[in-house]
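Worked example

This section walks through a single chain of length 336. The input is the sequence exactly as stored; nothing has been trimmed or padded.
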Amino acid sequence: MNDRILDFAIKYGFLILLVGLVIYFSLSAPGFSSPRSAVFVLQSVAITGILALGVTCTLVVDGFDLSIGAVATSALMLSAYSMVILEQPAFVAVLLCLLIGAFVGLINGLLIVKFRVPDLLATLGMMFLLIGLQRIPTQGNSIATGMSLGNGVVAEGTFSQAFLWIGRHRFDFFVERLVPMPVVIFLVIAVLIWLFLGFTRHGRLMYAIGSNERAAGLVGAPVNTYKVVAYMISGVTASIGGILLAARLGRGDIASGNNLLLDSVAAALIGFAVLGAARPNAFGTAIGALFVGILLQGMTMMNAPYYTQDFVKGAVLVAALVFTFYLSSRRTGAGH
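Given that input, the structure is written out below as tokens.
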């Protein structure tokens, strides 16, 4: 009986906690259960969820990408710079951002597999490099139409309507226009990565590499290639997040991506606790992002001080990981 209760707690405990959180906020915060509130939650989790899915791919191969927040902010600034200062069309700005994301992922991967730099150090170094690099062209200023470029020159370019549509368009849902475009993109990416990791040979090989890299190499798996690809996926998803953030804001805000790294990593790691997976997985990451969004929206509507939000997120993350790995180890011990 105890084993059955333990198995149930490991598999469904986090989902029960999520439902309990929704019920608590619905009763304690007026308006939390309204459709508008749900839209705010979904819109807030879309970008961090996309970044978290990229981190999940690196976690699968036993890596970790700390540069995602910097990549997203670099994509945000690059898209703004392309359209406002260089006056390029939207598709050029989007293409440049995707290429930069893939290139940064490639460099991260090569640093790790070719130069044997530990993943945390390689991606941390890339994070600092990008944070500095994105500030140089504008001398640390945000980018907006009409900004001064010096010597009496003013930036005359604008964000195209096609680009803004990516971040601001809403689809009809039960008459009201409630489903934002970033949410649709997040769901599409989540499904694609879920299918890729869970139902393709490539995904199974990536899990095998993460579980035992040496054994995977001995059976002929191209370990280095898959690791580089994982970091390239992370870079591209981070750049997509930056594009969506720029399209939503309509300006290149240098400080808008400050919390992206922490929220995305929290979502990816909380995903370990979903359905007792105890490993990185796309479904768990999506639920983890939703959990973080619900938590922050509920605390905001209850007028909780902003400085308590990081503490609560950290506490939930630690509790979820302890819950997952401690109970899983007890179940394994009981099995023996």
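What to look for: The chain has a mean pLDDT of 89.
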